[in-house]
Amino acid sequence: MTPKPSVLFVCIHNAGRSQMAAAYLTHLSRGRIEVRSAGSEPADQVNPAAVAAMAEEGIDIAAETPKVLTTEAVQDSDVVITMGCGDTCPFFPGKRYEDWVLEDPAGKGVEAVRPIRDEIRSRVEALVAELLATPGRPAR
Asked: Of the candidates 115, 95, 103, which has an alpha carbon nearest to the alpha carbon of residue 8?
């Protein structure tokens, strides 16, 4: 049996985009993918509008706390997805890196965060399908 794939989501404050992406990946993969998130300059708390937007999806991220990006988190991940953190993410050969260009939800209300949330969900659904696909058989 192969080990679980692991994904790290990184944004500046680890308070909005990366928290929503991590929550979706945890929820949609049902434990079949190891999930991490971090920020290059973590905020004091998760964005309340992101918490509210995810609650509308039945996913509670209210207890999450922003975490600082560490070299170890990058080393321990197979896929590193950045979301507007620039060049602050350490680079290691052999890792898969993606940069998801998404609007920053900081300072926005829940109405403005919903489209960002929905775009993240769409991207995470595609990622789950790809990472959990068995060769010759589509992912479920």
From this structure: 95
